Predict the 3D structure of the following.
Amino acid sequence: MNTIRKRSHKLGLSPGSLIYLGKKRMDKVKIHVIDYTEKSLIDKDINKIEECFPLKNKKSVSWINIDGLHDVEIIRKIGEHYGIHSLFLEDILNTDQSPKIEFSDDYILIITKMLSFDKKEKRIISEQISILLGKNFVISLQEAEGDFFDPVRERIRTATGKIRKMGADYLAYVLLDIIIDNYFAVLESIGDGLESVEDKLIAGINNGFLKEFYHLKRELLFLRRSVWPLREVINKIQKTENSLIKKQTYLFLKDLYDHTIHVIDSIEVFRDVVAGMQELHLSSVSNRMNEIMKVLTIISTIFIPLTFIVGLYGMNFQYLPELSWKYGYFFILEIMAIIACGMLLYFKRKKWL
C-alpha cells in the first residue's frame, strides 16, 4: 500500500519526471569523493556536486558516493553532466525498485539492495543502492548515511590488494561483492532466529512462538524477493560484452555470480526448514488434539453402560425387584464400579491408554 501511495504522486506527469519516491532519511545530502591512481590519491568530502565534474575527463578513477536522494536537483545535475537518461535517473529516485541493470554506450546503471538485520527488532532493513559505472568513474547513490563500504575505502587509502591498480569496472565489482557478502550475515542472523524457534517448537513452548515464526517466514520471503532478481543482474553483466568492463574483470564477476547462487540456495534451504517446522507444528497440534479426543472418548465410553443402568432404574415401572431390596442400591453401585474398572483394564490391555 505504501508503494501505491508513493507512485500516486507521479500521476499525470510525463515519463522521466524526477520526483523522489522514498522516505527522507537525513537532513542534508553528503557527497564524498575518492579519486585515485596507483600512485596518487584524493580523498575528501565536498559541498557541491559541481566540484566533481572536472574529474570526468581525468585518467584517474573517481568514486563519488552520495548519501541522501531527496535533493532531486543534485540528481538532475549529475544526469546533465554525465549524460544519464532521465528514465534512469527516475529509477534511481524510485526507491522501491527491484534489482535491475541498464546498459548504455557510456555507462551502466545497476540498482540493488543493501540489506542488514536488526537483531533487536528481528527484521531486515533494506536500502536501495544505485551504482553508475562509467569509463573512469563510479557513482554510488544511497538513501542514507552509513554503509558497508568502509573496508573498500580503507583498501583504497592503504593501496591494499588490486583495487588501485585496476579500473572503475573493478571498483564497481568490489562494491557489489561487499553488498552480496553482507547477505550472508543477514542469512546467519535469520538462521539463528530459526534455530531459536525450532528449540521452542521442540520444547513445546507456545507463548509467542507462532508470532515469531511467521515474522521470520515473512523476512525470509522479503530476502528472497531482494536477492532473486540480483542473480539476473549479475548474469546479464557476465553475458553482455561492454567496453566499460575489461576482460580480466569478467572472471571476478563469475565468482560474484557464484556467491549470488550460494545465497539463493541458502534461502531455499531455510524455506525448506520453515516448511518442515510448520509441518512439525501442525503435527504436534494434531497429536495433542488426538490425545485429548482419546481421553474424552474413553471417558464417554465408560459412562455409556453406567448411564444405561442409571436410566434403566430411573424408569417408572411398578415391578423392579431391586427397588424393594434392602441392599439393592449398594449392589447396583458395585456393579457400576466393576463395569468401569473392567473397561479401564481392558483399554489398558489394548494399549489404548
Q: What stands out?
A: The chain has one domain: 2-283.
